[in-house]
Structures are given as C-alpha cells and as structure tokens.
Amino acid sequence: MEIKIYISGAVTGTEDYMERFEAAEKKLTEAGYSVINPAKINSFLPVDTTYKQYMNMSITMLSMCSHIYMLKGWDESLGANREYGYALARGMTVWHEEA
Fold it and tell me: What is the reported pTM?
C-alpha cells in the first residue's frame, strides 16, 4: 500500500504556518513519502473562500491519504482537531511531529 501523508496543524491565528507546513512537507518528501500540504494547496483558493469551504477542501484531501501527520500545536486548532477525528474514525495511521 502506498503511503500518502496529509499534514495537519494550526493555521488560523498563526503567522508562520506556511513555513511549518513547508518544512514538514520537505522532511516527509525527502523520506520518500507522497505528501499533501493543504496550506500550500488552499493558498490557491480565492480570497473570499470561507472557513467552511477551506475545511471541506481539507477533508477531501485528507480522504485521499493513508496517514495524517500532526504538527506541534495541532491540538490548539479546531480544524486540526476535526481532521484528527476524521482520521481516527477512518482508521488512518497518525504520526506526530517530534517535540
């Protein structure tokens, strides 16, 4: 089975989320994994995209994956908590960024 990893973490209320998601994407890609970086992909959506629409897009991307990679601080994010719950409900493998 191919491992495809979705990166999950806090976006709203953080200023460095693009850098954090990019660093995780680089690390996971260099380790040989197929990676979905929702921060990068969602950045191409129109500026009037709503939070609900962003989350719908994110859950769709997550549904394409076998694994979820939780960035440090994810538990402070409502969206990341929703993604985590979705992953658990579907029996996905959960990886956590090292502290």
Answer: 0.94
